[in-house]
Protein: histidine kinase
Organism: Nonomuraea insulae
Amino acid sequence: MHDHPDPDQELTSGRRPLPDKLGTAFLYLFAAAPLLFYSLLLAAAGRTPTPDIDIPGLLTDMGIGAAGLVLLPWRRRWPWQVALLTALPTAFSFAMNGPAIVAFASLALHRRWRQVVPVAVVFWLCVLASTRWKGEFLLTALYGLVSGLVFTGITLFGLYLRGRRELEDAQRAAQEAAQAQRVEQAKLAERLKIAQEMHDVLAHRISLLAMLAGGLAYRKDLGPEQTRETALAIQENAHQSLNELRAVLGMLRRDGGLEAPQPTLAHLDALFEEVRAAGQRVEVDDTLDGRESLPTQTGRHAYRIVQEALTNARKHAPGTPVRAEIGGRPGAGLRIRVSNPVPDGAAGPGGRLGLVGLAERTRMAGGTITHDVRDGRFVLDALLPWEA
């Protein structure tokens, strides 16, 4: 026979396993102790007949005790009912005391005091009634005192263990909730990173498209071949924008992180060629030392910072030359400085939003970034950590 699951236990933890086989065997051995005692008594009576032993009564008592053992597997499904059914026969059955004590201990361990105390009182009264048949007041008083202490101890110990289990369940639930919250925060942070990637990629592409389209709109001196080349450049950048947008949205749908390959510092030359082909004038001063030891993640952040700085220059200072300075070495950090002349007039739409994103990206990378106007030039200066 197998124990049935305890509904109260399942509600509190949902995963606590049933008692192990050794513990269950010990409980049933304790519950069967009176039956084992009677069996030894019958064996002794078989070898040496004793007229004082009531064999039929003994067998009847053993049958009642065996019925109590049969009820025990249901003590978890119907805890107070089984405890009460096994407690009542103890008024006239000694063999039922084992199953009754086990059922009552299980009740005290898994149920609240409102169910435990009434059953404890009934059990105690039945124990007192079992001694009244003998008509000895002192024996009844002794039984009442000892059994009262035993029931009180079992009740308090069971309620204490239940309280401990509830506390453990509450702590476990709090830890799981905290872990779930950390997971959600990690997902949100990753989504924010993806959103930042989307902004950097699309802002770069769209600003290139705007520059190329502006050239077609305002340049009257372009020949057919130049017009065709510009149109092809617009088409190519539009396709690149769509492909990059699909890639980023695919990451969001998969609810996953950014996947390699992502552009790093090694792709800066291609970026400079791309913006120059679109008409942006860029002067590069690269004094980087030991670039092969630069961490991939740092190179990725560096690429995005340069890309956004070039985009920012195209949006707010179109037509002005841009100077990009990249330097640093392991242990001293990676320094990126992008500057351009400040034109007259107000900034274009979306001003400062890209810089806010760059500041957040740099902060997450453990670096620093500043931007201000110096001697008529807008200067963006970033420093990323680079361990030796």
About this structure: Residues 322 and 340 are 5 Å apart (CA to CA). The longest helix spans residues 137-218.
